[in-house]
Specification:
Elements (H helix, E strand, L loop, with lengths): L15 H32 L16 H30 L6 E8 L2 E5 L5 E3 L1 E5 L3 E8 L4 E5 L4 E5 L5 E6 L4 E7 L11 E7 L1 H10 L6 H11 L2 H4 L18 E3 L5 E3 L2 H9 L22 H13 L24
Parallel strand pairs: 1-5, 4-10
Antiparallel strand pairs: 1-2, 2-3, 5-8, 6-7, 6-9, 9-10, 11-12
Bound molecules: dinuclear copper ion.
């Protein structure tokens, strides 16, 4: 019904109808009370108008039932909207566990995307219909905001931090994508398209898009190029902790704190290793702040995440220092 109504954007994700229903409900409540108040004002103006010169109004001394009515009804309505809004907000901010992870890097003034298979795109994102997609995003410079009106998703993209949005497209098509945070001279031009395709078309597109290196493979390359592997070796942990199975593990720090090795911690430990030094080690690692692009950091994170603990052979046998491993190399 809204598809031909130009004031309303396309609706092309599983979340879009939920956002719209809430929006229309809030608009409905607002219109209802606005009309009610307007009608009452006009009615009272006419009904209680001064009919002759010395007419004086009678004093009103309050009424508990009336006070309660106009306090409790709006409270109930506001709480209902809050509850509904919270439900939709949680749905928007919690990607389903089977969501496939894509990546975006915002940069003055373009969007760079990377597919899990390794393909890279600029200002265009091809996705299959009917697949939940989690987009992990960061910025190379200033704050941007990723906004696809047809999916009803928008999230700020911040330098030095990862934020996510998720969506599941429901209709093939081409949908506008915008930067929704003023980010400099060409902010208004920082946009592009999300191309939603049938799964078989998407496969065809992937095949035709040329070869890309997976994040794990490029991360492994950087790991060797930057000589991370000379200290972070699985066979000796004298200079640096082993990274095998580190992701999501709890890490004891020198200052007695404990942190979970999530993306944020790993990222900080690459760029500014002195910030959180692992117990038992000296802060000897050089800082890579300013030396790695956000895409390189992402690749490294993926490589580190891929270092699962060795199955039965015990710890320390993961191929952290062996660039010849076959994982993810096309
Ligand atoms: Cu990027 Cu506005």
């Amino acid at each position: 019904m809204w598809l031909n109504f130009d004031l309303f954007p396309d609706s092309a994700s599983t979340l879009a109808p939920r956002v719209d229903q809430l929006y229309l409900f809030v608009v409905g409540v607002t219109v209802f009370f606005s009309l009610l108040i307007a009608v009452l004002i006009v009615t009272f103006i006419l009904r209680f108008r001064r009919r002759h010169g010395n007419l004086v109004g009678s004093a009103v001394h309050g009424s508990i039932p009336l006070e309660l009515t106009w306090s409790l009804i709006p409270l109930a309505i506001a709480l209902f909207i809050f509850g509904w809004g919270a439900e939709v907000f949680f749905a928007l901010s919690r990607p389903p566990s089977d969501a496939v992870e894509y990546f975006a890097v915002g940069k003055q003034w373009m969007w760079k995307f990377q597919h899990p298979e390794g393909h890279r795109e600029i200002n265009e994102l091809h996705v299959p219909v009917g697949l939940p997609i989690k987009l992990t995003m960061t910025s190379e410079d200033v704050i941007h905001s990723f906004f696809v009106p047809a999916f009803r998703v928008k999230a700020d993209v911040l330098p030095g931090r990862y934020t996510t949005v998720w969506f599941e497209a429901t209709r093939p098509g081409r949908y506008h994508l915008f930067c929704a945070e003023y980010c400099g001279a060409e902010h208004s031009l920082m946009g592009g398209w999300v191309e939603v395709m049938e799964p078989n078309e998407y496969e065809g597109w992937l095949a035709g898009a040329g070869t890309g290196q997976t994040l794990v493979a490029s991360g492994e390359e950087i790991f060797v190029q930057r000589s991370c592997n000379t200290c972070h070796r699985p066979d000796t942990q004298s200079r640096a902790p082993s990274l095998t199975g580190i992701f999501r593990r709890s890490v004891a720090l020198k200052d007695g704190r404990k942190v979970t090795a999530d993306e944020g911690y790993l990222r900080e430990s690459i760029l500014n290793p002195a910030a959180k030094v692992v117990a038992g080690y000296d802060p000897v690692m050089p800082a890579f702040q300013g030396q790695l692009s956000e895409e390189e950091v992402l690749s490294l994170l993926h490589y580190i995440k891929s270092l699962a603990p060795a199955d039965s052979a015990g710890r320390g046998t993961a191929p952290a220092a062996a660039p010849t491993s076959d994982r993810g190399t096309p």
